[in-house]
Amino acid sequence: MTTSIEKWGDVHVEAGTSRNVFLDVGETYSGITVRIPVHVRRGDEDGPVIFVTAAVHGDEVNGTGAIRQLIRDPDLDLSRGAVIFVPVVNPLAFDRHSRYMPDRRDLNRCFPGRRSGSLASRLAHTIFSEIVHRSDAGIDLHTAAVRRTNYPTVRGDLSVDGVRELAEAFGTEVILDKQGPDGSFRREACNVGCPTISLEAGEVWKVEPAITTLASRGVLRVLEHFDMLDTPAKRPSAPRRPPIPVTSDDTTWVRADAGGFLSFHIRPGDVVREGQALATSTTLLGDEVEEEGDVLSPTDGIVIGMSTLPAAHPGTPICHIAKLPPGITADLIERRRARHGELQEQIRTELAANIRVEEDT
Questions:
Q1: Domain annotation covers residue 328
Q2: I need a labelling partner for 142 at 20 to 30 A (CA). Which of 114, 181, 205, 347 fits?
Q3: Quick one: how far is CA 317 from the chain centroid?
Q4: Whether 138 contacts 195, CB under 8 Å
Q5: How many angstroms separate the CA atoms of 273 and 311, rounded?
Q6: Are 215 and 276 found together in one domain?
Q7: Which residues make beta-bridge pairs with 253?
Q8: Quick check: is 287 in a domain?
Q9: Residues ≥6 apart with Cβ < 8 Å to 37
Q10: 212 plus 271 within the same structural domain
Q11: Is residue 224 a contact partner of residue 243, using CB atoms and an 8 Å limit?
Q12: CATH no. for residue 301?
């Protein structure tokens, strides 16, 4: 990349130090300058520069919680390289508890942006110039959209040099091999030579303990993989990896065929089999909707996303399933989880806390 990690306007970040810097990214309606807080931490020696960002969508704050946890960790000492922590990329949306910019644009469709473009495009241009162009790799933290929750899944274009290495080092149980939409942060960063992955995990407007733990540990595993952390005596303990990584390039959204009130039979992260009942649609008086009542899984897979809203009309997305790749079976995943899946079980339990799950009858 072309921009120095040391100089940020009038602020200099020397090797072996950490500094907070503030990027001017726009103005409010009243003309007050809007700034993004950034924490830059450098090791004593040169090495990779990795950015970790959150709240590109202003209501997705699980990643904000994880980054704050990492910044506040007194034992996170870098031996080489640098990390750029950006807890909130989109302050204009964050202040409104909104996914979108005040101009109603989705910032995650506006990269790399333009200096003289729309409000969202100008913010995207600043982020790209000041963060991506200083970095060798990136991790962008997201959650599900409103009224949904996501089981932790890393997404990345595995055909791009460095992305598979980054995704596998992060260590989620599920990796989706996806390019990403035009204008999305990770896709456009990859296009300029900065391999970038995104994590999708949890719900909007929340800082969920198991999700922030998983996200912060994933970042630490990446830093460890690139030999950026200090001596083992000082290094934060990185947990063992998930019991079995599942890499999928094929997902499907299962939708309701009838209107009604849903009784869910699965949790986020559950392994499902073809023909398994995912939910049952009932009337408001509790009677099962005839013929189209049961919503069935079309494939073997892992539930990576779910609606948290039980009221459905025809076409409502109920759950997002990552299909299992060749050689990976539902039985194999369940056996491995039974032996080594403690954190995954904690995550599935916490994510289902706001969903009533009933036994399939």
A1: yes
A2: 114
A3: 20
A4: yes
A5: 24
A6: no
A7: 320
A8: yes
A9: 20, 21, 22, 86, 87, 88
A10: no
A11: no
A12: 2.40.50.100
Q: What is the DSSP letter of 361?
A: -
* 54 and 189 fall within a common domain: yes
- Are 285 and 332 members of one domain? yes
Q: How many CA atoms lie within 13 A of 218 on its CB side?
A: 34
Joined tokens for residue 149: 């929750």
d(CA 163, CA 165): 5
Token representation of residue 300: 């073997």
Asked if the model's pLDDT at residue 313 lies above 80, the reply is yes
Is position 42 within any domain? yes
For the chain, the domain total comes to 2
What is the C-alpha to C-alpha distance for residues 336 and 341, in angstroms, rounded to an integer? 7
- Please name the residue that has the structure tokens 């963060």: 131
What 3-state DSSP class applies to 180?
coil
Q: Are residues 200 and 341 in the same domain?
A: no
Asked if 186 and 140 touch (Cβ cutoff 8 Å), the reply is: yes
277 and 184 co-located in one domain: no
Which domain range does residue 22 map to?
7-225
- As a whole number, the mean pLDDT across the chain is 92
Domain contains 28: yes
pLDDT tens-place string over residues 263-283: 999 999 999 999 999 999 998
| Residue in this structure with the two tokens 């025809």, named with its chain if needed | 314
pTM over 0.85? The answer is yes
The C-alpha atoms of residue 18 and residue 259 are separated, in whole angstroms, by: 54
Q: Tens digit of pLDDT for each residue in 14-37?
A: 999 999 999 999 888 899 999 999
